[in-house]
Amino acid sequence: MLLVTASLLFGGNCSAQAPAPSNQTMPLDQVQPGMQGYAYTIFAGDQVEKFDLEVIGVMPNFLGPKQSIILVQLKGPRVEHTGVVAGMSGSPVYIEGKLAGALSLKLGIFTKEPIAGVTPIADVLAGGGISGPIPGPTSGSISGGSIYGNSGAAASAQGPVSAGLAGEISQRMGLQGGAELRSIETPLVFSGFQTSAIQKFSSQLDGMGFVAAQGGTTPARPDDAKLAPGDMAGMVLVQGDVSINSACTVTAIQADKVFLCGHPFLNLGDVQLPMARSRVLTTLSSDMASTKIVNVGGPIGTITGDHLTAVTGKLGAAPAMIPLELTTKSALGEKVIHAQIVDHPKLTPLLVALTAFNGLTQNVVYGEGTTLKLNAEIRMKGHAPVKIENTFAPGDSLSPDGMPVALSIMNVVMRLFTNQFEPVKIEDISVHVESVPGRQSYSIESAWLEKGEASPGETLRLRVLVRPYRGAARIEETTIKVPDQVMRGTNLRVMVSDADWMNRASRGFAGGLGQGSSAGLDPLIALINRERKNDRLYVGLFVPSPTMLWDDKELPNVPLSQINAIDGRPAPGSVQILRESLASEGNVAMSGPVTGIVSLNLPVR
Q1: 3-state class of 170 per DSSP?
Q2: Does domain 322-437 have CATH number 2.40.10?
Q3: Which of 194, 347, 504, 594 has its CA 20 to 30 A from that of 561?
Q4: Integer Cα distance of 90 and 102 in angstroms
């Protein structure tokens, strides 16, 4: 399988002085120190520029067995001024006129000389699923191993990806002063996002190895898909009224297949993510981290692979994304923001949270110090919609009041994507947030029954003293009904509490956050939809008989003989035994979050 010919590789985008390279490749075993070469990238506009380089040497087994890199020094006024630039990863490197690899690593920070690492071309192509030697007069057997050690993605609230290459090498080798080879940063281009919003998710984004850069979007052009090596393209993560896109350089094109970056984006493996053209406005020179400032162009196809030695894509139609509609309402008016989020289990939850937080807090109808009422709906193909309802009062910390709203949505989306039953196809997400002036929250101070004892089947009035934030205490009333089948002489427990305490009492350490039963995804959706709300005052009546919790099933009043019969059969940790059973439950709706717990004894005579 041959690379595209030289005329197709570079088309009309090459610098006028750049000689047309051959379609031959340079095997790694033929690379020698002192060899002269050049590479192509864009520094500004659409003009692919050539810069020179010299081979310093080959570093065999740099990160592991058969994982070698070519170390080069970049030459010329432009690169000596900017150094190795974020977004330059993937730039095709030619040695003696033959394609040798993709620029992918840089050496240190604050360095006086631009020294970079090159992924051998055989590894780049192997990252796209092409194995074995490259046919041609200079082909040789090249290992298809990785040249770049990157940690895998992880979906967690603390961060989707663990530490990158630089931290890994520093810890392993004890390097000081940033003198290690690290991957060239991939600009993550934010359009419509404020820096203050991005910074709140910096712990997650920093672990990805990105350089956050504010950029823009440009209308799609007919020639967006006419890529040549040295052009820029990347993944579309968010698009619409706001956008997030990655951007790196094209190494090679083979028919409709595109090879990018020379190192992974997030090492996600085989994926189906939108691919878009990136257009460079200018290159910002910095002693610490030079980067390209880009606008994102139109969609041009699909990113199909994200592996250790290359990101690969296919020109053509782009895959579908998840529509997100965010409506913010307050006394100042209403604002609606539309966006589309990439559909990927390890990326979607974080991107939904980031987009929702930015859309909520960065608009004129939002203000800190208000109570936020969240109503959201997640619609999925083939299943009932998931509904999220909660109220969030402003806090006293410096954390933005809108952050709990974003994290609440992220938590539910993550639970859906990580379910163990079937893949989730989210059709759209709608989020409505109403901002109410003031801090509306309540604490439970005390509670009392109208009588100190009750009879089976009797209904009693219950009064609860609640105190609003910086307000006078008030009394809320409700009723409880003693079950008809309760035996006389039994002592019941009446618990008045917030949602969290009621979850603990009725669900043990699961806290109402179970992942559903073996029946499938529908029980999980039902479980999420019936979870208790934080703006309710809950009243529970507990009887002194065991409750068995088995996955999402609650089995109250279980005889000890049945408990002993199944003991040890389920998987460890999948069954809990609670000493009480929740006989009945009621709630009182409040205008803000409720906290506190009061427990009362109720003898049955």
Answers
A1: helix
A2: no
A3: 504
A4: 5
* Residue 271 CA, distance from chain mean position: 15
> In sequence order, which residues have a C-beta less than 8 Å from that of residue 581 and are 6 or more positions away?
542, 543, 545, 546, 547, 556, 557
Residues 6+ apart with CB under 8 A from 70: 28, 31, 55, 57, 58, 59, 93, 100, 101, 117, 118, 120
Beta strand residue intervals within 308-383, DSSP E:
310-315, 322-330, 333-341, 370-380
Q: Taking the CB of residue 296, how many other CB atoms lie within 10 A of it?
A: 25
CB-based contact 63:147 (threshold 8 Å): yes
Show the tokens assigned to 222: 């007919």
Read off the pTM.
Answer: 0.80
Residues with Cβ within 8 Å of residue 317, at least 6 apart in sequence: 301, 302
Each residue of 39-83: pLDDT tens digit?
999 998 888 999 999 999 998 877 567 778 899 999 998 888 888
Q: Where are the domains of the chain?
A: 6-315, 322-437, 442-603
Residue 279's nearest CA partner among 314, 250, 319 is: 250
| Alpha carbon distance 329, 365 (integer Å) | 7
- Residue 408: its H or E element: helix 403-417
Residue 450: Cβ within 10 Å count: 11
Distance CA 267, CA 257 (A): 18
Residue 203 sits at the vertex; the CA angle it makes with 197 and 206, to the nearest 5 degrees, is 95
How does pLDDT run across 2-35, given as a tens digit for each residue?
A: 344 333 343 334 433 444 455 789 999 999 999 9
426-437 vs 36-42, strand pairing mode: unpaired
User: What pLDDT is stored for residue 276 in this prediction?
Assistant: 93
pLDDT value at position 365?
87
